[in-house]
Amino acid sequence: MLALVSWLIPYGVLDDVFAENSFLTVKIVSEFSQNLKQATNIPSLETKLVSFENVFYLLLLSGLILFLVDIIRYKQKTRKVRLRSKYLYETKSIPVFLIPDSDEIFTVGFLKPKIFVGEKYTKLKEFESIILHETQHVLHKDSLWLILITFIQRVMWWNPLVLLLAKLSREYIELSCDSACKDKTANGQYQQDLAQILMRKNHDNLLVNSFFGKSKFNVFRVKQLSEEFKMNKVNKITLSSALIIPVFILTFMLSINSTSAKKLEEEPFALADNQVDLILKISLETKNTDNTISIKRIESRVIAKFGEFAVLRSDKAGLEVSIKPSKLMENQIFLETKVTIISEEGNSIQTPSLMTTNGIESKIVIGDGDQNLELIVLPVFNQI
Prior knowledge:
Blueprint: H1 2-5, H2 11-22, E1 24-27, E2 36-38, H3 52-84, E3 86-91, E4 94-99, E5 105-108, E6 114-118, H4 127-139, H5 142-155, H6 160-184, H7 189-197, E7 209-210, H8 215-224, H9 233-266, E8 275-287, E9 293-305, E10 310-314, E11 319-329, E12 332-341, E13 348-350, E14 354-357, E15 362-367, E16 371-381
Parallel strand pairs: 1-9, 4-6
Antiparallel strand pairs: 2-10, 3-4, 5-6, 5-7, 8-9, 8-16, 10-11, 11-12, 12-13, 12-14, 15-16
Helix pairs in contact: 3-5, 4-6, 5-6, 7-8
């Protein structure tokens, strides 16, 4: 179950979560970020990279639709069964209902579970074992586990390993239930009853606990009651792989995102004579009252026009940067900047400005020790 649930962990955002708990870092290309906004009408960079994120979200959305269909089918099935069923008796505070002219056996309900049993089984000598089995499902809260398994199975419907894990999880639920029933009966009575009644077939709904399974698995259930259930090598390898593979996927996705961002940042842009390509790195270090240091960073690429302010704002970092380039000489420009530090106590403004040369990275640091602002800029423009 742990292996199955591990696929729901949003590994892609863990890096951001950890970053927020230590120091705040925003490292992105401005034209492609929802957190970093460029307020001026500056030409946007274009990329031909296929958005894996959009495809992934589309797959997840289709999975959610499948899950909703399961919920609707579950509601329809249980409503029809309740309308035609009759109250039989109660066991361990769990009501048991009889379904006339039916060969179904299952448990439904998450908060108020109920056991439904087909009329044809009430006269069988194995009837008590059937009720015992369904009662164990209720006591083990298997309906809640089942809806979680179904949710993961549907959301990750395109992942064959998740489908395999969902199948194994359902089987382990049945094996656990069988084992509990075995412990509550003497002389192997439950095993004998199980062997007799598992020859019958039943069509399952994914969201209901049903007594029956596939024929091959039914034989396995009877066999396992003769010995203590232990995971074999195949089970262990499968579950281990399910835990390891998400880590590899995380590493691969982070590598792709990092490489793509770097390519976008380094991609050449056809500049007009009145434009300058600026790669900015802004870092604000603040000394807190407990002597800890908090760091806010913005790393961005901006296409600005000479004589006009370009504005960048990061609500996440709590910084707004206005920068205006002015051409001094053929290969030199002057950058006038205004950095607004946004906080609940009130905004403060720093105005680091510097002269820099085409294609050469320049840096300026201003501050009083308690709060230091560092501005690094690499300009590229056409020399006329």
